[in-house]
Structure formats: structure tokens, C-alpha cells
Amino acid sequence: MSVRRFSFAPFAASNPLRSLCVALGAVFGLGSAVAPAQAQLTVDIVQGFAEPLPVAVTDFHSGSPEQAQLGADIAKVISDNLARSGLFVPIDQRAFIQDAASIQNGPRFADWRLINAKALVGGGVEITPDGRLRVFYRLWDVLAEREMTGLGYTTTQSNWRRIAHIISDAIYKRMTGEDGYFDTRLVYVAESGPQDRRVKRLAIMDQDGANHQFLTEGQHLVLTPRFSPTTQEITYLSYENNRPRVYLLDLQTGRREVLGDFPGMTFAPRFSSDGNKVVMSMADAGNSDIYTMDLRTRQVQQLTRSPAIDTSPSYAPDGSRVVFNSDRGGSQQLYVMNADGSDVRRISFGQGRYATPVWSPRGDLIAFTRMHQGTFYIGVMKPDGQGERMLASGFLVESPTWAPNGRVMSFYRTERATSQGQQRTRLYTIDLTGFNEREVITPLDASDPAWSPLIP
Fold it and tell me: Residue 286: which residues within 8 A CB-CB, separation 6 or more?
């Protein structure tokens, strides 16, 4: 569904002396209604707890009572997105002094300072005569009494939720200086049934859990779904007729094809960042090595030749290197090699075993699963193995996947079985501070998530 953007003239700034500069993870120390002139708030993005910024998100105004609910729904999605980021705390609308209609003529900044709002979001919606949806928004710095940004969008009425995600991304970028991650989707494995006879289906949803749908019926076991860079295709492993094979599914047409009919078992396929290649592991006679396939020529290249188990490969964003895990050193550890298989180097040296490495879209970190003394961890380290940090832990946490901005990731958590033998498996998100873990609500148990790039 297409979205068209339009711009309009901003309100005039009434106080240019103050600026609100908010960095990702900033420690906001203002506390009172008025900030010192030229106050600038910054913090190291990888350290410590961030005090969230109070933001007021008003319902988007409409001249029609019939469309008012649409304006309220858009504001609710924006408010929820900002809250889940952990960087913002939306103020309860019942505290608002100025209403959404009068704000169309300009905010009364003193009223917003009285309720401790540092930023203010307002907007409007209308249905045009041809039936299309027209939405605009404005973001204000309340302390500086200045408009920070504002844009408008037109699209189909059914696309209103995506507009709310796009506006959330625009606000996030204006306030942090980095790209957002709200206009994205998650594909994952939906699980149901007894633990010894689990039904596993492919499912897809918006990053906040909305617009959920199943992609497969559950007749066949599916594993390791991954998005293509265009977000329109998914690779995954499916056991059909007792034969595990890698499939390529087109989300728009529903058409799928076998991605190579290999003699051995194939695992964990992942796209390169340009979408031209898929890297995976294949097992032959009990030995697993890393292979890559050129999707244009379908030519296959073997990258590792080791008697050990080499698996879970992931390309660096520039395609120059591959990270994978292997037990070639006697225990399961992480290794990095050039894209042609040369110069293999071990990068993990901590206690325990390491698995499921995933290169960050920013290229600066590798996320992984670590197992030590009966506990699982989700952690990150630099590509040279330095700076290892654990972000989450539990009975079973596994399969990290990065949001496209490389600041947030998703993973799944399985809780220890109850005395009745019941276990709960759910998806979670967490940011690089490790302080903002949140569950992503799904209708069934959920595992093995993969986060899409921003939707084009």
C-alpha cells in the first residue's frame, strides 16, 4: 500500500533561545517545568538506565465526529510506540489542559509546562472526497516553544496504522538523531499443542503485535524464518515428506520455491544485506559446513571445510565477512571469516558455549546466545570479540534478531516447566542498555523471531 508525503509551513518559533537536544538513552535531568537556557541533554548510548522523556500525544483532530475515533487510534499507536522504546513516557491525556481542537491554532506552551511535558505531538485527520486518508502531525519542543518537525501523508483508509508507525519513526529520528524501527514487521514460529507434539507454523505481524496472520497451516514443521532485505520474501526451513529443505516464500503472491535441492540437510539460511546471496549450513554424512548460494545464478560455494560442526552463519552488513559458530576448537564458539571462507578467526573466549550469532545492521556488534552453568544469556560483542556484554538471561533465551536501527533486538524466552509440565514461550524486545525488556504479545507460544528492515 502506497503512502505519499506532503509538507506544510511550520508555526513560527516564539523562543529560539532554547533547544531540546535528546540523544538515545539520554539521562533527562530537568525535573522542573522550566529548563536553563541552551540546555542540551546527552548521554552515552550503551551505558546505564535512561530516564524517559515526558511527552504529550494529543488525539489527532478531525472536523467530523465519525473520523474522531480514527484520530484517537492513530495517537494511541504513536503513544504506545514511543512508550515501548523506553525513551519516552507519554503523559495521561486526562491531565491535558489544552484540547486537540484548539491546538490547531498553536499550542499554549505554558499549559503543557504545567503538566511537565517536554515534547508535544499533535495532528489532524480527514477523509478526502475521493475516499483517501489524509494525516498530518507536528512535534513541538515545549520548553523552547518551537516546532521541531511536521509532515503530512495520504494513503488508503485501511493503512492508518502504518501511518502511525511512520510518524512514530519520524518523531524518534527527530528526537534521537537515529532511524526508528516502528514501521517494520516480525516473522516468527507460532507454537501450539503438547510439548512432545508441537505444531509449528510461520506467522507474521507488525513489530507491536498488530495485523497478525499465519503464513503456513501447520502440516509441516518450520524453522528459522528470515526476511529478505526488500521485506517481500522470507527464507525458512520446512520438513515436508520427512525431508528438510530451504524454501523461499514471496509474501505478496504467496508463491514459494525450493531454494536448492541439496542432498544433505540444510540449516539456518540468511540473506546477504544486498539480497543477492543466501548463506546457510549443510550437513553431509553427519558433518556440517557453511555454504553460500548466489540467488541470480544459483551457484553454490562451500566456505568451510572442517570435520567440526560449522553452522548459524550471518553476513556482515557490507558482505565482506561471515560470523558463525563451530566446535572445531573443542567447544561451541563464535568465529569470523572473510566472505570467501579465508582467514577464519575465533572471537569468543568466555566460559560456556556460544551460538546463533547475528551481525548488527550497523556493523558494530554481533549478538549471540551464550550457555553457561545451566543458564542461557543474550549478549553482544564487537566483531573482534572485545566488549562482551550480557543483556538478558533465563532458563532458555535464544535467537536474537536486530531491529533495522541496530539499537533494539528481539529474542524468545521459554520459562521453566511447571509441576504440571506446562511451559510458556514468548517473544521479547530489549535495547542495548539491557534495561527495557518488553514482551511482544502473540496469540500462541512464539519462538525464533526475525525482524524485518524498514518497510519501503
Answer: none
